[in-house]
Design goal:
By secondary structure, the protein is mainly alpha-helical. The protein is built from two helices and two strands. The chain has a two-stranded antiparallel ribbon.
Length: 70
């Protein structure tokens, strides 16, 4: 009878803990996916930014590759 009560008490703690763990794990996964998407958007926008290099305007991505628009 004592073992049954101990098991019931353990399950009373374990089941809500498991549900909370799954909830937060899902939340973290969703946040990580959102962060990856937003960081990719930022990287894409940065590629479109033009910078002035040596008196001429060049595409930032081309500048990083060492290419010139001339």
């Amino acid at each position: 009878s004592e073992a049954l009560l101990t098991t019931a008490a353990g399950l009373t703690v374990a089941i809500p803990a498991f549900i909370a763990h799954r909830f937060f794990l899902s939340r973290v996964d969703n946040l990580a996916a959102e962060m990856a998407e937003r960081s990719q958007r930022i990287a894409d926008m940065m590629e479109d930014i033009e910078v002035e290099v040596g008196g001429e305007v060049e595409d930032l991505a081309a500048h990083r590759r060492g290419e010139s628009l001339q």
